[in-house]
Fold this sequence. Notes:
Blueprint: H1 2-13, H2 17-24, H3 28-35, H4 44-51, H5 58-62, H6 67-80
Helix pairs in contact: 1-6, 2-3
Amino acid sequence: xxxxxxxxxxxxxxxxxxxxxxxxxxxxxxxxxxxxxxxxxxxxxxxxxxxxxxxxxxxxxxxxxxxxxxxxxxxxxxxxxxx
Length: 83
């Protein structure tokens, strides 16, 4: 899921949802919904805005090659709770 990938990168960078939303110029509530899996189909325009602060790419976010990192993300998220 894209939300898991965004969360993984966000936590890895030490960003809260508020900080990432501000850095990317996107809605905090929409980003939070993605992060929690309540939304799961963001526009390419939205993804393009958030990849720069995350030092990532749209391809990385929509790819399916990071299953192991998603598992790490869920573990890290329980410890950091950077919502």
